[in-house]
Amino acid sequence: MNRSLLITILGAVMIGGTYSCKDKFLDVAPQNSLNQATLGSEDGINAVLISAYAMLDGWDGSGPWGQGSNWIYGDIVSDDAYKGSSPDDGVNTEGTELFIWTPTDPDLDSKFIADYEAISRSNSTLRLLKKTDGLSDDFRKRIEGEARLLRGHFHFDLYKVFKNIPFYAEDDLDFKKANFDEAGNYINPITKIIADFEAAAELLPTKQAQVGRATQGTAYAYLGKAYLYNKQYAEAKAAFDQVVNSGVYDLQDCYHSIFSVPEENGVNGKRESLLAFQASSSDGASDAQNANYTDRLTFPHGGSPFGCCGYRQPSQNLVNAYKVDDNGLPLFDTFNDTELTSSDVVDPRLDWVVCRPGVPVLNWDVAYSTAWVRAPNYAGPFSNKKNIYYQGMEEDGIGASWVPADLSQLNVQILRYSDVLLMLAEAEVELNNLSRAMELVNMVRTRAGNCAQGPMQSDYKKVAVPIDDSGITWATYRVNPYTSFPDQDYARKAVRFERRLELAMEGQRFFDLRRYGIAKQVMNDYMAVEKTRRSYIAKSPGYQDKDDLFPLPQQEIDLSRKGNVPQLKQNPGWE
């Protein structure tokens, strides 16, 4: 099911002299068509909906990857990660990291295409649902809720990157919609995105029989997130409270459980994942395209068990951010004054997020080495650890590809409960409910120090996170709850810093900096220091006002023309 799911494939094979043009010949139904006749059933509608879910990883099988995890646009563009790999590999992505952006960037076009392909599939589901008779009310409600949730998600994904994008509903016939009104002002799609999440919250059940399907909690979480981005803090709080008070979701005992195949969808009655790309491999799909395909470039390189490719290397700035004071609290403004050393005390999440020299790598019975890095003099000695899989997952987890060990059935997490707790804490801070904000942050911090043992490993010393074990030689770990939020400014700083520590390398950071309104300051301060560590960063012109939004792809602007008039207006500063 590629490109448009409801394009009917019409064709007639004319073999000279064999058939004559009679009525019966003309009445033959079209073959190999994806239309109402072939998909107008519960199974058919469900298949189209699943094809929309399949786009959560950003991969539609054509062109460069749209990366649903946003590891380029959320991580590499931020202070969390370098492009990585080597100078001659992914030159275009290095330009993205350095704020050397252009409207002709093919990666941006891939992002645009992938999300709108997913929106098309969501709308195809809704159109089929309207046209098909004989469906139960429960089925109609559930499928409409899931399709609208997905349509909202993909529009919101575009909104975070470009903001000024047209919103497409299932009954739209004009596929060259303008993103500006008659006065030339941009049309903000956030109201329609919010409407989709509101509708989904009314339609969806609290739980689903099949793992991975969106629920009412997913919808309320997204509704709160959209309100948060729109600075509607009271409405955001109300939506997030619905998730927290539902009793359906909880923090899993170990920070890294949600990033392990056996526990990614919950364990011991605790479920943390609200929405994820449900990856699978060795399932017969060509080139294992149902695996975590779009994150494959971000594995350690070289002598590692994974073999390729070393993108998204954690920055020195991120590593330093995990240093803590004597009370086990973040250092905030002074964390980056000096490089992390073996004598520093650190938040244990550091060694779940980052592969560091001399530190064990999950349960692989080996310590990480800079031999796993493609070009350590270029992008430093660290690698991403968060999305690599545990030893023991190889038989089921590896699919065919140019480097088979890059792919696994590890899910790509898009929305999880700790994210919801911290977004709720953010809303509480803005509403000046500081004690509740601290309570929520402390829930996350308490769990961060709770890994007595990691998933897939009975001998926790090999996993690298025990807090109070004297046998650990590679780090001293400490993480404690806050005892007070003395004022709103302190609380705001604490919540924002906690989001960075908790959600590092999950495609969130740059979008957070933007909506806080501090991206320009943070990124320019970051690059001023980082260019002394990584010489290539000196090529960056720095963050400019126009970088508040990525440019719309020029190809899409050209394709939007009616006559000679483009219906897509370029983002400010990129005209």
Report on this model:
This protein is mostly helical and 575 residues long. 37% of the residues lie in helices and 5% in strands. The chain contains 20 helices and ten strands. It has helices spanning 23-26, 36-39, 42-53, 71-76, 91-97, 106-131, 137-161, 190-203, 216-229, 233-245, 316-321, 350-353, 376-379, 394-397, 417-430, 434-448, 488-503, 509-516, 519-530, 554-559; strands at residues 81-84, 273-277, 311-314, 345-346, 354-355, 383-384, 412-416, 476-477, 561-562, 565-566. Strands 1-3 form a two-stranded antiparallel sheet. A two-stranded antiparallel sheet has the order 2-7. Helix 3 packs antiparallel against helix 6 (106-131), helix 6 runs antiparallel to helix 7 (137-161) and helix 15 (417-430) packs antiparallel against helix 17 (488-503). The chain starts with 22 loop residues before the first helix and ends in a 9-residue tail after the last strand. The relative contact order is 0.13. Mean pLDDT is 89; it is low at 1-33 and 457-468.
